Amino acid sequence: MGTFRFHWLLFPFLRLSSSYRRCPLSNRSLIIASVCVIYLLLVVSQTGYSKQHRDMRTDKDKYRLTRGLYTLDISDAQSDNVDFQTGANSVVPTRSNVVYITLKTKRLKPANIRGTLRPKLRKKVKRITEANSAFTQNKRGTLLRDVGQIQRNFPHKNFLGETKEVHYKLLDIIPTHHTDSQAGSHISSIRIYSQRAPPWLSPQDVKAMRFLADANILRIKEVIHGDYTSLLIFEGETSVSLGNQRDTQGNNVCGGQCGVISSPVDTTEVFAFHLDRVLGLNRTLPAVSRKFSFLHDGLPGPVLLWDASLYPEGLAAGRATVRMTWGEYQSSLKQKCWHKNISPKPDSDCSTVHHYEWSKLALFDFLLQIHNRLDKSCCGFRPREEDVCVELGLDAECGNQKHIQLTNIIHRGHDPRHLVFINNKGFFDRNEDNLDFRLLEGIKELPESAVSVLQSKRLREKLLQSLFLDETYWESQGGRQGIDKLIDVIERRAKVLLTYINAHGIKVITMNV
Asked: Membrane-crossing residues (predicted)?
């Protein structure tokens, strides 16, 4: 029965094949050509349908990713960026409309970073002779000019000198007609369109950014410590407690919440803050860009949150600084000081800083090419004549590198194990063939949280979302086009760093200390 059914099913095929063999050669060729044409038409139609279906799915995915400004995976959120009371990183939106950030635009011309980031605001000054100066003559001249500008704007007020070691020059600017126009505006320059800020920014970060950008200014102080350190500090009026103002002797500088005003040439501080948070390092002070009608000729400049815990013994004693040479630093890297909470030997070259902190600092400084901490003498790259290390003659010390003193290694008075990254003067105009690899010397491990962001190819997306919050900084850099140029530089350096990690066998580990 089964054999009969098989022959019955096979019978039409046998008849067609016998008829095909009896046909002339020309007819058989015509039949083959027709079958091929029909098959080709079916293949083309099926390919077009698949491409159209795939394009529709891609458009839906793009809409899903860009319909909200901060539609991110929950896994990207850091555990320490959650509000401790509510358990969520929720904020109050400052804008009602929605702006979409996509990654479509690409430039054809190379970026002119120097023209974008380092505007020439003044003529070149004479060579500086004080090797330990924290501020260049350029920056000091700017501060003195700003103080004179304040005096001209407020002639009815006088500056008050209080002590010999630390001088406070105080100026009240509480009259409403002199207050900053931006601070008096009802629209915040920190623009948040969603109920949730980017997950890498903690609620404290958002509060600090809003205070620095929008607080009404009560008074301004110029604080001069010694012969070289000069700070321009403003005290703002706010009802929000920022949570990091501690009762220390350094608080006599600021009675409430305060910010430190920097020069417009130091705009890297704002970019550094957002890069630090995106990488999950959380070692910089909050910074925003802000315009003051009575300072810097109205140009936007960075404003950093004042943190009195950096001055545990008062401003006269200076910051809580780790003093060590390059040779001692390299020795401490080999000993892995404080690793696994093991106390180092008394005769070791260990400092109070945990071993992992150096890895975070090296990665951060390499991406921004900040050399004033680990390489103040510019021994690891070819400096220009206008660089501070050349002007001060520090590059001559490279012949005896072991005895070069590290600078700007700062920690809080109550937390000596962790560093605070300040004076983040980065350089975006340094090409890939002149990067400072000395910053990575002796580093055998790097933080997994930061390296994973560099490997995920989402660094640009996250930086755009984060920097977009600061409207003043965004516009001062030329909008989306200018910000893209800066991110281009960081992305290229990230590729170089990833290649360096693979070539030198550097371990990528979790650093939750």
From this structure: 29-49
Residue 16 clears pLDDT 90, i.e. is over it: no
> Domain limits of the chain?
74-98+136-509
CA distance 348 to 368: 31
Tokens 């960075």, located at residue: 302
Any bridge partners for residue 212, and if so which?
none
Q: Residue 258's beta-bridge partner residues?
A: 235
157-212 pLDDT, tens per residue?
Answer: 433 333 334 554 544 444 343 445 444 445 788 998 888 889 999 999 999 999 99
Closest C-alpha among 492, 368, 370, 381 to residue 438 = 381
Q: Is 416 helix (H, G, I), strand (E, B) or coil?
A: strand
Using CA atoms, how far apart are residues 397 and 258, in angstroms rounded to an integer? Answer: 38
Identify whether the C-beta of residue 505 lies closer than 8 Å to the C-beta of residue 512: no
| Count of Cβ atoms closer than 10 Å to residue 461 Cβ | 17
Residue 28 pLDDT class (50, 70, 90 cuts): confident
Instruction: Give percent of the chain with pLDDT exceeding 70.
Output: 65
Q: Which long-range contacts (CB under 8 A, 24 or more apart) does 393-396 make?
A: 393/131, 394/131
Per-residue pLDDT tens for 295-353?
A: 778 899 999 999 999 998 888 788 899 999 999 999 999 999 999 888 898 888 899 99
Burial of 210 from C-beta contacts in 10 A (0-12 / 13-18 / 19+):
buried
